[in-house]
Amino acid sequence: MPAHLEIIGARKAFRTPEGGTMTALDGISLKLASAEFLTLLGPSGCGKTTLLRTISGFETLDDGDIVIDGVAVTQMPAHKRPVNTVFQRYALFNHMSVARNVGYALEIAGKSKREITARVGEMLELVGLSGMGKRSVSQLSGGQQQRVALARALAGKPKLLLLDEPLSALDKNLRQKMQQELKSIQRELGIGFVFVTHDQEEALTMSDRIAVLAHGRIQQIDAPSVLYQRPANLFTADFLGESNLLPVTLDGMSAHLADGQSFEVARPSGKATLLLRPEALAVTPPAGPSLSFSGRITQTYYSGKDHQIALDTGQLGPLTALIRTGGTPPEIGATVTLHAPAHGLHLIDETAA
Amino acid sequence: MARRFLTLYGLLFFVFIYAPILLVVVYSFNANTVNMMIWSGFTFDWYRQIFGMETQVTESAIYVDSTDQLYAAIRTSLTVALSTSAFSTICGTALALAVARYRFRLAGFYRTLLMVPMIMPDIVLGIALLIFFITIGMNLSLMSIIIGQSTFLISYVFVTVSARLAEFDTSVEEASADLGATPAQTFRKVTLPGIAPGILGGWLLSFIISMDDLVITYFIAGTGNTTLPIHIWGMLRRGIKPEINAIATLMLLFTLVIAAIGLYFRSRRQK
Fold it and tell me: Which of A98, A270, B2, B217 has the fewest CB neighbours in a 10 Å radius?
């Protein structure tokens, strides 16, 4: 697939009010295939919003290039770039009706009234706001404003849609509904989406690929399942989902945990970290070789379908596990033994930053 | 008990503020031609007289020298106020935009410099302007009044528009650019409508202050350029006359109407 958006060695530093400099983008390169849903995920201050703003043209790069459909847009002002943005706080034009908001890009482009009306109707239908064109923006609920912002950004048929934490102001139910809708709209239109969020669940459910950012660098860029199951480094493992990270020593044939347990793994000797997701631990031992951990339950949380428990294993430290107990809740203070299959375990090299 | 005391205190406070104004309005309808502090019946005569209509007032009680002079003063004041407020609104708005939007050295200092004329004592500003105009050899005229008043009215517009700009969300300007609008289009279609209430407010404020200014204008008016406040001041020097109450009441009404228009537009915007 041809690269639709390409960012090559993007660098950007800001001057802080104290006179120092803050590196927001520290050499970022990535490629986006057309019709791909890419999420930029990271903690606040990781550079994800800055990266998005350099694509839209609101920030200029200190170094590097941005290419959209084979055209370098690095020096192009925002209003000439073939991308549109859905802003975090929507940034709707309060003095205009819903229809004029949605038709703004077309009005600017000098399209005919009839063409604008047709396209606005089409867009309002797409986002489920048919017949609301005449309303004032301030009469709408947060969720509806969100839809207007989306319709407005899509009306001008951008080659690429940028979304800056667009769902963060919505409540949980509405957010999940919008996640599904956004995803289906993206499939329907077949254009690339670059979506910024700090919500990992949102990133995992919606994206084709996720770029995990920290300290202005891409830590890892991969499909959600790969990121979750085989994180490349400790940051990604820790940032994405709950994780138990246990140090192991390698002797070339197997890995040894601090409590003496070991499992076979073909790796050069040295040190590494074992990633054990909470759901990998179970009360009943699996068939075949397994690792087991005994300990006292120190905390329990009930999540609706299973119990999350915190286990103090003594030598290996605290562990988190998600277990299905079929009605009887685990008791704090009780001692349990949990098991994990000893194959397919993921090790993170100590050298990975 | 404490509650009742507070109510009484509140009442007295408003009497303290509004009683003098109310008195002027009441006096303007008093038929007593000799002593306006003694009520001797209701009349519209003082208003009729201002408008040059027939009255039952005896010749000896007529004080207004000539309605023509009064009208000329009103015309002068309106000319000055319209020009000054238009000029101040354009300059003040441009300044507010510049200070709010561009990062430049000494921005804070400029902001302070722009506020100073508001706290400058009128008499100092009046004398300073007079000396300045004489120094550069400019004749005192309507022009000198317009320039002189603008020097401090720009500050009022600057402050009013700045306040609006401070709460104006700049992300809508980014949204406009993002959707393809050039900076000029963005300014016309998004920025200007967004800060319009502030601009309108600044314009009305500068218009009212200009209509009302006596001290500064008195210094720089020269002869033959009598504004309404100067005219009234001149009338007062020959004794407090009942017509003055009527003129004051009309000015009050005029100001209230302008303020009401401002409030109306403001509430419409916020809907």
Answer: B2
Q: CB of A58 within 8 Å of any CB in chain B?
A: yes
Coil vs helix vs strand at B71: helix
Chain A residue numbers with beta carbons less than 8 Å from the beta carbon of B269 are 95
Residue B66: predicted pLDDT:
67
What's the CATH code of the domain at A304? 2.40.50.140
3-state DSSP helix/strand/coil percent for chain A, to nearest 5? 25, 35, 40
ipTM for the predicted complex: 0.82
Q: At CB < 8 Å, which residues of chain B contact A?
A: 169, 171-172, 174-183, 185-186, 189-190, 193-194, 269, 271
DSSP string, A204-263: HHH-SEEEEEETTEEEEEE-HHHHHHS-SSHHHHHHSS--EEEEEEE-SSEEEETTS-EE
- The answer to whether residues A224 and A252 belong to one domain is no
| B172 contacts in chain A (CB < 8 Å) | 91-94
How many separate domains does chain A show?
Answer: 2
Task: Provide the residue range defining the domain that includes A208.
Answer: 3-236
**In Å, how far is A243's CA from the nearest CA of chain B?**
38
* CA of B172 vs chain A CAs: smallest distance (Å): 5
* Interface contact B174-A58, CB threshold 8 A: yes
Asked if A32 and A89 sit in the same domain, the reply is: yes
Taking contacts as CB-CB distances below 8 angstroms, the residues of chain B near A83 are: 178
Residue A59 and residue A191 in one domain: yes
- Domain end position, chosen among A198, A218, A236: A236
Q: A218 and A308: one domain?
A: no
For A194-236, what is each residue's pLDDT tens digit? 999 988 889 999 999 999 999 999 999 999 999 999 999 999 9
Distance (Å, rounded) from C-alpha B259 to C-alpha A183? Answer: 52
A108, B180: Cβ pair inside 8 Å? yes
pLDDT for position B59: 55
pTM: 0.79
List pLDDT tens digits, range B78-110. Answer: 999 999 999 999 999 999 999 988 878 888 888
DSSP 8-class letter at B222: -
| pLDDT at residue number A1 | 47
Q: Are residues A180 and A219 in the same domain?
A: yes
Are residues A194 and A38 in contact, defined by beta-carbon separation less than 8 angstroms?
A: yes
